[in-house]
Structure formats: structure tokens, C-alpha cells
């Protein structure tokens, strides 16, 4: 059993503002090669995937190796979890072999249940409700581009999904301005919206043009997330007018950038001229998953201080 106090990363507010700033500093040192230590030497990371992934799997796997750990890809199709072994039992057993668990799954409560029963750090690699690692990578991209997220206006155009919820949590924790344009019926979590609005300039609107006015960052995501495939046709109708195209980007500030967590559907939520054009930072954004998750693993599993 682990004899150290452990911390999980299930949502953005699991870290303080100072810690998030520390994560970004450490991630930048990792990116530039200034930090090349192996604080996880001899450790093992279990990576449970109940949903598909390209970026999350590869960035965690490569990142763990670079920090000295041994990552294990555990598809729920192959481990006993997929045959009915409980999350609690899975957590207890993995904690006897490993020093950290990353999980991507459907219900956020499953992620919380795993964290409750594993006495090692658990990292949320996406649930139906949250995608905190992606938002850290997105914010790091903003910091690289503008020097800081302070005083910046972030626009979200599209579904009030896991990404939108994690943006709300980030606005609550860090205090930047957030404008969300979502079609009626596709709002983000009302409790997270209310909490963010209690401390930050956060607005939910119906018109994407209103959301991007004065924005430094325009952000979108697929209209149908993993698990919503059968709603695709209905969603295409509901999201009419929500495509991020060049005319919409021109309404943002002159220096505005475009971000998308990927995978993307060109011609659906984003026009090719935007994602493949000069506004786009999507490849840096994807790369930043590696750096920022390494910083998270180093902090939680390697107890590297975030000073
Ligand atoms: N952005 C993201 O999480 O990508 P994957 O689904 O490929 O992991
Ligand atoms: N909202 C998307 C993000 C994919 C990385 C989904 O949950 O499928």
C-alpha cells in the first residue's frame, strides 16, 4: 500500500491558481528541455480506457516513459472491468502494483469512485462531464501565445459538453473572461456555470457572433461527443449556424487564435480555412497535452514541487 498522502486530478479546481501557474512553468521547462529529470523512475502508470483515444493515450504513454515510469494501456474490453469486476476492486488492486492511474470513461462518478478506492493518484483523462487535462493544455497554449491568461477573453462556440464544463471550472479557478455560445438545449452544467459566474465575467449566449466579439481565443469541439453518435443527425440540425468559419473569426480580436481539442470534423463545427489557416494553434495545443500532463504526473506521482 502507498504510505504517502496522495492527490487526484479529476477537475481543474483540484489545483489552486498558484499550482496551475506552477504546472505551466514546469511544463514549459519540460518542453524546452530545461527539465529532463526522471522523477517517476521505477514507477508504473495504469491507463484505463473505456472510450477511444489518440492524443490522450499517446501523450500519457510517451510522457510517462520520458519521466521514467512504465505505462500500461488497459482497454476496458480486455481487463476484467469490462466483464463486471467493480471499479472499487479494480482500484484497490491497481494501487498494489502501480503508483498512478489515468482513466478515460463515461460517467464522471466512475472516475470519482476509482479515486475514492485507489490510494494512489488518479488522473481524469476525460469523462462525459469533464476534460481537465485538455483545458490545462489549452491554457498553456494561451500562455505561450499571449504571455498569460489574465485579462484574456476566451470564446467557446458549440456544445455545452465536457470541454465547456472544464472551461467553466478554469474560469472559476483563474478568473479570466469566458463567453459560451451554445444552442438552446445544449447548455453546460448549470451549477458549474453559476459557480463560475459568481467570481468571473462568464456569459452564456445563443449567438456565436456575440461570443467571439472581442475574444482572444475562439474554441470549439465536435457537435456529437463520444457516446452521442446516434444523436449526430439531430445535432447537425441544432448546431446550424455554429460553424467556426473565417467570417466568424474576423469578428474576434485581430490577434485571436483558434483552438480545438481534436478530433475535428472539417466542414462541420469548423471550416478547413480556420483549422488549417493562420489562426489555428491546434497542433501546439495537441503537443501541450504531453508537456502539461508530464507536469501533472511529476507533481502527483513524483511529488515534484510546483514552485
Ligand atoms: N483531445 C483528446 O482528448 O483527444 P483523444 O480523444 O484523441 O485522446
Ligand atoms: N467532447 C469530445 C472531446 C473529445 C476529445 C468527446 O467527449 O468526445
Write the layout of secondary structure elements.
Layout: H1 17-32, E1 44-49, H2 55-66, E2 70-75, H3 87-97, E3 100-104, H4 108-117, E4 122-124, H5 132-146, E5 153-157, H6 162-174, E6 177-181, H7 190-197, E7 202-205, H8 208-212, E8 217-220, H9 232-238, H10 246-249, E9 257-260, H11 272-275, H12 282-300
Parallel strand pairs: 1-2, 1-3, 3-4, 5-6, 5-8, 6-7, 8-9
Helix pairs in contact: 1-12, 2-12, 3-4, 5-12, 6-7
The chain binds phosphoric acid mono(formamide)ester (CP) and norvaline.
Norvaline binds at residues 126, 131, 161-163, 221-222, 225-226, 261.
Structure description:
With 307 residues, the protein is α/β, with parallel strands linked by helices. It folds into two domains: 12-131 and 288-300, 3-Layer(aba) Sandwich (Rossmann fold); 132-286, 3-Layer(aba) Sandwich (Rossmann fold), CATH 3.40.50. Helices cover 40% and strands 14% of the residues. The chain has twelve helices and nine strands. It has helices at 17-32, 55-66, 87-97, 108-117, 132-146, 162-174, 190-197, 208-212, 232-238, 246-249, 272-275, 282-300, and strands at residues 44-49, 70-75, 100-104, 122-124, 153-157, 177-181, 202-205, 217-220, 257-260. The strands form two sheets. Strands 7-6-5-8-9 form a five-stranded parallel sheet. A four-stranded parallel sheet has the order 2-1-3-4, sandwiched between helices. Strand 3, helix 4 and strand 4 form a beta-alpha-beta unit. The radius of gyration is 19 Å and the shape is globular. The protein starts with 16 loop residues before the first helix and ends in a 7-residue tail after the last helix. 51% of the residues are buried. The model has no long low-confidence stretch (mean pLDDT 97). The structure holds phosphoric acid mono(formamide)ester and norvaline. Phosphoric acid mono(formamide)ester binds at residues 53-56, 126, 134, 261-262.
